[in-house]
Amino acid sequence: MGMKDFVDKLHIENDNREVEDILFEHPKVAMAAVIGVPDDRSGESVKAFIQVKPGETVTEEEILAYCKKNMAGYKCPRQVAFREELPVSAVGKVLRRVLRDEEIKKGRD
Q: By 3-state DSSP, what share of the chain in percent is helix, strand and coil, each rounded to 5?
């Protein structure tokens, strides 16, 4: 597991895969990925990217409430972004680095 697979939130290492596993259990989530994004208060916070199952709809509030119910508060995403498709490798693994690069580019714009 690479160093970037952890979010340093208030100096507590947050295993992204653990958060993703919980998000995958949501009945409307097809795929999920989480990354760390800059946060003025805590240095870095969790942002979740969600691909919703076909024919389903879900809100950011619903995802956040689900997270608060199923994981420790410090692990919960502070932001949620919905995507029709998440970037994946040839073997179907989510490419978190692509998501990070997109977030970095947004910060520069």
A: 35, 30, 30
